[in-house]
Design goal:
Structural class: alpha+beta
Shape: globular
Distance between the termini: 59 Å
Number of domains: 1
CATH class: Alpha Beta
CATH architecture: 2-Layer Sandwich
Strand content: 15-25%
CATH superfamily: HIT-like
Order of helices and strands: HHEEEHEEHH
Helix content: 25-40%
């Protein structure tokens, strides 16, 4: 008889996802009031877009850049939004180069639910730092992803860099 063991990874910071799940509001429709930026992990606000730390990251330092307007497809962005979005991506990449020193990046967007977009009505770009070995045996054999730093500590380091 095969033994079926389940490993448990304690991650209490993910509890907010469970408790806030019934709210179906768009996470990218952020308030204009900047008072809660630290609670929302908003890193920078541009004129047309903002950057936000992903609270359910694929890798440490996973950041998203989104327009303020709630739109679901990149061709609906105007030229100012496109330029501001790419400038924000470049700024975040430079910051991550300095702070985390990744060996590469995945940068892109999922458009539409079928592509994996968690919020398919509000486009956003992902900036995911990558290192050799970050897809090691843990996800393959243990179905566990290791994130090496807390969101709070990383957010603080990123905000200090930006100031």
């Amino acid at each position: 008889m095969a033994k079926n063991n389940m490993d448990v990874l304690w991650a209490p910071w993910r509890g907010e996802f469970i408790y806030e799940r019934p709210k179906k509001k768009c996470i990218f429709c952020v308030p204009k009031d900047k008072k809660r930026d630290d609670k929302l992990y908003i890193l920078e606000r541009g004129r047309y877009v903002f950057s936000i730390l992903n609270i359910y990251p694929y890798n440490n330092g996973h950041v998203m850049v989104a327009p303020y307007r709630h739109i679901g497809s990149p061709e609906k962005l105007n030229n100012n939004e496109l330029l501001d979005m790419m400038a924000a991506v470049n700024n975040i990449k430079k910051m991550l180069d300095e702070i985390l020193k990744p060996e590469g990046y995945n940068i892109g967007m999922n458009v539409g639910k079928i592509s994996g977009a968690g919020f398919d009505g509000h486009i956003h770009m992902h900036i995911v730092p990558r290192w050799a070995g970050d897809t090691n045996f843990m996800p393959v054999l243990a179905h566990t992803k290791v994130i090496s730093d807390s969101l709070e500590r990383l957010y603080k380091r990123m905000k200090e860099y930006l100031c």
